[in-house]
Amino acid sequence: METTIEKKYTYKDFESDQEVRWCPGCDDYVILRSMQKALPEMGVKREDVVFISGIGCSSRFPYYMNTYGMHGIHGRAPAIATGVKLANPNLSVWVITGDGDSMAIGGNHFIHVLRRNIDLNIVMFNNEIYGLTKGQFSPTSLLGQKTKSSPYGNTQPPFSAGELAIGSQARFFARVGGNTPKEMTQIFIETVKFKGTSLIEVMQNCPIFNDGAYDEFTNKEVREDRQLFVEHGKPMIFGKQRNKGLILKGLKLEVVTIGENGIKEEDILIHNAKEEDPTLHQMLVRSKYPLVTGIIRSFEEMTFVVREDEQTAKVKANSKFRKTDDLFFSGDVYQVI
Amino acid sequence: MNTPLTKNQPETLEAVIIRFVGDSGDGMQLTGTQFSDTSAMFGNDIATFPNYPAEIRAPQGSLYGVSGFQVHIGSVEISTPGDEVDLLVAMNPAGLKTNLHAVKPGHTIIVDTDAFTRKNLEKAQYETNPLEDGSLSNYRVIEVAMTSLTKEALKSVEGLDNKTITRTKNMFALGMVYWMYNRSPEHTISFFNKKFKSSPSIIEANTKVLNTGYYFAETLELIPNAYTISPAKMPSGTYRIIMGNTATAWGFLAAAEKAGLELFLGSYPITPASDILHELVKHRHFGVKSLQAEDEIAGITSAIGAAFAGDLAITTTSGPGLALKGEAIGLAMMIELPLVIVNVQRGGPSTGLPTKTEQSDLLQALYGRNGESPVIVIAASTPANCFDYAFQAAKLSLEHMTPVILLTDGYIANGSAPWKIKSVNEMPEIKHKIIKEASEDWHPYDRDEDSLARNWAVPGTPGLEHRVGGLEKDRISGNVSYVPENHEYMTKKRAEKVKRVQNYIPELKTEFANEGDLLVVGWGGTYGSLHSAVKHMNENGHKNIGYAHFNYINPLPKNTEAVLKRFKKIVVCELNSGQFVKVLKMNFDGLNLTQFNKIQGLPFGNQELEEKFKQLLK
Questions:
Q1: What are B127-155's pLDDT values in tens digits?
Q2: I need a labelling partner for B27 at 20 to 30 A (CA). Which of A102, A254, B3, B618 fits?
Q3: Structural fold of domain A11-213+302-308
Q4: Do A82 and B287 touch (CB under 8 A)?
Q5: Which residues numbered 49-78 in A keep a CB inside 8 Å of some CB on B?
């Protein structure tokens, strides 16, 4: 519903005058720049863009964007953003959050915003650690992980952001590495086209408290062999030689090699992000080899605002009340002379 | 229906207090509401008070499952539902047992004898049947086999099951009371026709039982004569009966229309505030947007989002919910956005007494947040003026760019009274601070010189892109600032901004006396009780006692100290253990302050107040 415009912005139009204060080498810089580069491609006016965040390293993001923004309170950004969008559905509203902000303290808002399917775009910076409070385990930290608050190893099993989201009826879920700005920019642009709540999980490296958490998937040398970047309508092929692929064997995904054991390219699964049934999407989310990135799920349904608007239009059409006076003086009123 | 009156002319009374009690499923709230609505239409002044258990359907016949509805009607000004009752209608032994103490000696009790079974008597912990053991000899007891008479009356109506038949017996009682007080059942019959439009047999059944009760009373020799209460002398105009919670909701509707803004409500259901939500969700035709959120925090934070985007945003709750909203109120205060938080107070602490009234959230409203985070706190004092204070909360919030906490309580929220309807045209202007265009030197935290309110730059406006947040802000740009002097400056500015609201609110007035020996002080929902107690004393010769009621608590009216100093002694009456008295002590030195408190989940009674005041006057 965002209005399109002729004026062409560059990424510089979206830089605020505030000095960026993340640690050197943090993937947050990559996300910031990818967003600044994506926005001019979205056909949205700058004054219609709003960034809402919670608390944490990620949540400083709005201060660095030359748009409207609010740095809210811990975990509540989805609820604040819901209010913004309901107040003015014309706005392009983004939620910036982290793994702790969205899945620990803000878990309730996170699942409900996805359930409602209001047209918001949520970018989750998942670094599997608490950064701003200096290194405690988060709800996505691994079992056994040693952190400031788990010196003998983490005993709380982690959430998978994608599984939790799809379990909460997310219609759009994408995952991307924090060190692949081109893909990230592309996903941000696609996200805006999607009507409904969308969640983008960025595997964001924290160089200070959880350095290398994603190395086995995101390092340049292994990335092509370990990551499958899915695209709707295309076969699920990965690998440096582009000869690995996914097939469905029984109820499980299996990695096969094209040209071995009689496997041909047409045997490889075609990615259907628009499928309503999330079963296969959940399997892709869970897969560790390959780790699946790209837009995994993108199933459009009526959004919350549209549903609300339709109801309001119907009520308005059938109501005899135009002004509050019509209501106040209606029904059981009586005169005192 | 115009029924000829009895052979005896009805005796005229000035006022009467009636209480209907029964099981929580007996329909006592409906019975009471119908009687009070009918009386209001007749021209009486009224005040009502429902008193019901927290359990929706407590075990039948149990003492704690008793639901009651009290109505006070008069030809004179009525400001409370009253203490002792002239007529008690008890649908079962438990109702009689728990309410007998409230009946004036010598006055009337109507009972449904069919409900006085051995089982019900046991449940009500009666060892002997009070109808037989002489324990009611001080009262005039009218024994009626209401259940069997109802069954008999409905014999000819087809398609009714046993449950429906028994549930109609409350209308038998209502019919009797209508006759006794010379009221026509007409209004209630037209209510049936509207309410049960789709089930003619239910309309027929209720109408029949109501009329049967009415005629039964007429022919019954046990009732010597009917009474009547003449219409009250009230200012002329168009009236309706309104409940406090409805009035609150309507005040916001009026404010949104007046301000030219859309109304947004973010709310999570909680007793006794949910009726505001129920009311506002109906009004989509006015463009009201509402979100029943996933929790209290999402209720307020969604409202903060809507306020950021330019709506008149409100959130509604009760005590425990206010506690959950604390952090978010701090955010709204910090980013200086308009937001109204309604707290319909109930008995606390913790879950406390959800269906009972109390004034124990005052200090929470004033101070229940981290850091120094002053907000405007105002309180409504009658069911009808919930409308005015909701409107005023919205106005102050929008004009001063700050959160406002509006306190009401279970007593005025569920109570009802006549409301002289106010057209939106009669309400004062609301000038919100939205700016449409950017000037060269615009800054998000530029302030109005007089009010210190900042401007309201709403997303969607070109050139006003800016960021706000909970981190301390630079005094001009609103950017994050850790500068020590800036933090002190901003802390003081935020306090000063709220303090200056004094220049925009009415001064404190006293009633009955401008100076004297004793000043009775109250705030919020106790107005009716305190006012009528002082009035009664004044009419009985105590001209040295005045009354001051506070609706504005933060800031206090400018002349507060001057007014209080004119009295030798001050008694602050509150339904808590003394919170407002602390506020006064903190603010003013040298006042002779005493306090009178009640913490029973119930409003003040007239007698206890007068006794206390007389004792203080000695």
A1: 999 999 999 999 999 999 999 999 999 99
A2: B3
A3: Rossmann fold (3.40.50)
A4: no
A5: 50, 52, 55, 62-63, 65-73, 76
